[in-house]
Amino acid sequence: MIKTRAALLSCLALAAVAASGAASAAGYVNNRAGWYALTKEAKIGYAQGMNDSLNYVFTDDTLSEALIKRGRTLCLVEQKTTAAGLADQITATYKDDRFANVAPTALYILRMAEVCKKNINAVRLEYGLGPL
After folding, report:
1. Roughly how many angstroms between the first and final C-alpha of the chain, as a whole number?
2. Angle between the 104-115 and 117-126 helix axes, to the nearest 10 degrees?
């Protein structure tokens, strides 16, 4: 279990960088340059697609994965988050040069872990699991 936010950021950033080399097919956005190349509308669409796919609970998800997805979904509904708002959060995170080579998917996971921590932990508690 990762105990600190810095450790979580480091692990996710490393995973995203490693994955970005393998997933460089046309149509995928793998870093800040790819994100900045998108139009505003494309960023919003991309953010919506990420949100939908990353929060869909699959039958083979672990309980922990499913509860994180449920917590994120409840948080986004509670905060009335829009796809445009998600795109803006990703753009804002890319202003930090440490994330220049990180895929927007990893940034989404990082940001939502921060923004939705209360909701994620509440859902985990309902199932007898401790906080993240």
Report:
1. 8
2. 70
